[in-house]
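Researcher: I'm preparing a figure for a lab meeting and need a structural model of a single chain. I don't have an experimental structure, so a prediction will have to do for now. The sequence is pasted below. Please return the structure as C-alpha cells so I can convert it later.
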Amino acid sequence: MPAVSLPDRAFISVTGDDAEDFLQSIVTTDIKALPEGECRPGALLTPQGKILFDFLVSRTERGLLLETSAEQADPFAKRLILYRLRAKAQFTRLPESHALISWDPAGDGAKDHRFAKAGLILTRRPDDAPAADATDDYHALRLSLGVTGGAEDREVGDYFPHDLMLDKNDGLSFKKGCYVGQEVVSRIQHRSTARRRVVIVTGRSSLGEIGASLTIGERDVGTLIAVSGAQGLAVARIDKVGAALASQQQPTVGGQAVAVSLPDWSGLDWPAEAEDVQS
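Model: Understood. Here is the structure written out cell by cell.
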C-alpha cells in the first residue's frame, strides 16, 4: 500500500501578511509552533467550546494549507471570512479534490502528525490523479490506531476538542493565548473533567452504521463516529466503560459483543473508578 488517494477532500490556501497571526487567534492549533513539512489537526470552535469545523493544517511556500472534507470546505471558508475583519488574509479553495496519502517517508507531502504519534510515518498532499483504490485499507489502519480528526470522521459537531483527543495529538494548545472557545476548553483541561474520549471498537462482524450506540446493558455510553467493517471509533464515557470492564460487563454495538480499547499513543488509562462527571 505505497499510496492511497482519498476522494471528497478539499484544500483551502490561506495567504497574506496576516495569515499566520489570524489563524493563530481563532483555531485550536498552535500555528506558531507548526514545523515545516508537517500537518497537524485542529478545529475552529463555537464560543461554547464545541467543534464547529475540524481540519489538518500545514505550511506552504506562500502561507498555510487547510485540508478538510469537501462537504464542509465552503462553510468553513465562509466562517473564516466572517472572522477575518481587517486582517490581511485571503482564502482560496484549491482545485484538487483528493488527498494523496503516501507511506514513503521521503514523499513530497506533509508528514501527518496524528500517525507519527502512533508510530507510523505517512505523508499527505493535494492531488487530482487518484492512486490505488485502497481507501478502505487506509481507514481500517486509521481506526485500528485510534487516529481521528481532520474531518475524516462524521457526527463530530457536538463534541469538545478533548473528546476527539486534540489535547493528545497536538491539535489543541493551552499556551498560545486566546482563540474562539478557549476559555471553555481550558476549564475542561485544568479541572480534569474530560471523560468522553475516542475509543477503538472491534467486533466479529460489521459494526453497522455511524451513529450507532456503544452500550453496556441498557445504557448508552458512547456513539460510533467512524466504521470500517468490524473496526470502528466511538466517542465514549471512559469512566463508564472502564467501570464496566473492571466488573466484567460486556460492551455491545447493535447487540454484538465488542472489544473496546484506548489508543496506545494517547497515554490514557481507564479511570480507576466511575465518576459521574460531564465534560
